[in-house]
Each structure stands twice: as C-alpha cells, then as structure tokens.
Amino acid sequence: MNWLLTVFLCACVVETALKLPLITVVSKIASFSIKAMRTLASKKISDHWKEIVMLKYAVILFKSTINLALLLGIIVLVVTVIIFTSDYLGSDLSEFLYSWVGMIFSTISATAYYYLRKKIVRYKLQLF
User: Fold this and answer.
1) Total structural domains in the chain?
2) Can you give the pTM of this predicted structure?
3) Where are the extended beta strands (E) located within 18-121?
C-alpha cells in the first residue's frame, strides 16, 4: 500500500510543482542577482547611484525570495497533508518515506512520472 501511496504523493508533488511559477521566480532572482553583481563591479557607475540601484535590487530580491519560499511552502503543505492523511488512515507512509528504499523509490517515481507526463502531453499536442 505504501508503494501506491508513494506514487500518488510523487504525482501530486510533480503536478503541484509544474502548476506553480517556480521557474519564473528563480529566473527573476538569478537575473537580478547578476544585475546587482554587474552594478557593483562597474567602474562607470558612481557610488551614489550604486546605493540607489542596489536598494531597489535588494527589495526586488527580497520580494522574490519571499515568493519562492511561499511557493515551496505550498509544495511542503501538499506533502504534509498527504502524509498525515495516510498515517491517520493507518498506513505508515512517513516511516516508509524516511527509509532508504522509500527515498529511492520516491525519487524514481517522481522522475518517471515527470518524464511520462512530458511524453503524454507532447503526444497529445501532436495529435491536434
């Protein structure tokens, strides 16, 4: 039973992660981090303007980091709800997931689900 629940959990986590704008937020953080490093390294920009620009970049990075933390919190919430629900119903899913076998199986399940989903979506798009 734990094997099926693990596959269900991994499918829910992958679907949740795909629906959330994680890549957009991470790319925004990376983009503004690079901009901040370039601004600091530039000899053509005065210290006065560096202070102004760096404050704006810091605010943007702070908001993006909070946004990323909230998105990751949603994924953790999905995992927690599924694990607590299954444990409440009598399954020892949490113990299984904390074992080496459970960790390896959940990693393989999530990866397999992601690639199968990607193939199915691509196949459906080619039909229409």
Assistant:
1) 1
2) 0.83
3) none
